[in-house]
Amino acid sequence: MSSNAYWYIGLSIISLIVLAIALARAKSVRAVFLVLIMTQMAYLIETVIYIYCGSYFYHPGFLKDSTYYDSNMGALASNMLVIPTAALVIAVYRLRLRGIAAAIALIGAIEWLWVRLDLYTLYWWRIGYTAIGLAMYFPLTRIVYNRLHRPVRGVLHSLLLFLCIAPILGTLHIVPIMLFMNRDYAPGLFSDPAHDTTTFASVYYLVMTLIIVTAMKMRRGGAWMKAVVIVLLILAVQGVLLAMGLLHIHARWDPWYYCLFPTCVFLALKPVSARLARGG
């Protein structure tokens, strides 16, 4: 593990401490929902600018076998911890313009320091773009948090449910690949296999999330019957991807893991749908 890793670990620990304090202050499950929703929004933005458009590159020094997967680890630290934690603090403590501006300035200062220390490389991206993006992202946090107070129905309910579930599925999907190289995807969009795999995975987990949200919203059929259908559907998708040469599996446990963890997420998070519908 390189010296860069200690900076990322330190920032992650600080974020986790602040996150725990904010969640304790909120004393509400909607704070957890907000973290998940804002994490997925950060994931979606990062998918476009980082994965597809090559905006920047992280250098945490956690993984030696693949620089791109190592960069992904840095992206996770930012989008799963730092940014959602700041968003939660703004919502829970009801920070207004000055507080939001201070949060943006702090994140900008960290980004500048990371560049100076060669922990992070900017390509076409600029720190000013981060500030502009956060100036839209953070006010939205308060809107979402306040909306979670009230019952949610229809399309908005489906959207918020999707945003709650997707970051869990996405993280559980890509992290084993980065750590164990148990599978790779080959859509042929990028020359680096890790970049190619990350690109396909960024779409794959969204499709799986849509399937799970659809199953949750369906009134007919019991939970366990739907769980079996999800397993069979994922097995069928994996079979098609293998036959097309888009998927290569390198570990015996891989097919079972990728069939079972979405099903477990479905069963564990099914109550989230009802809680969103109730609000509060």
TrEMBL record:
<feature type="transmembrane region" description="Helical">
    <location>
        <begin position="72"/>
        <end position="93"/>
    </location>
</feature>
<keyword id="KW-1133">Transmembrane helix</keyword>
<feature type="transmembrane region" description="Helical">
    <location>
        <begin position="100"/>
        <end position="117"/>
    </location>
</feature>
<feature type="transmembrane region" description="Helical">
    <location>
        <begin position="6"/>
        <end position="24"/>
    </location>
</feature>
<keyword id="KW-0812">Transmembrane</keyword>
<feature type="transmembrane region" description="Helical">
    <location>
        <begin position="157"/>
        <end position="179"/>
    </location>
</feature>
<feature type="transmembrane region" description="Helical">
    <location>
        <begin position="31"/>
        <end position="52"/>
    </location>
</feature>
<protein>
    <recommendedName>
        <fullName>EpsG family protein</fullName>
    </recommendedName>
</protein>
<feature type="transmembrane region" description="Helical">
    <location>
        <begin position="199"/>
        <end position="216"/>
    </location>
</feature>
<feature type="transmembrane region" description="Helical">
    <location>
        <begin position="123"/>
        <end position="145"/>
    </location>
</feature>
<feature type="transmembrane region" description="Helical">
    <location>
        <begin position="228"/>
        <end position="249"/>
    </location>
</feature>
<keyword id="KW-0472">Membrane</keyword>
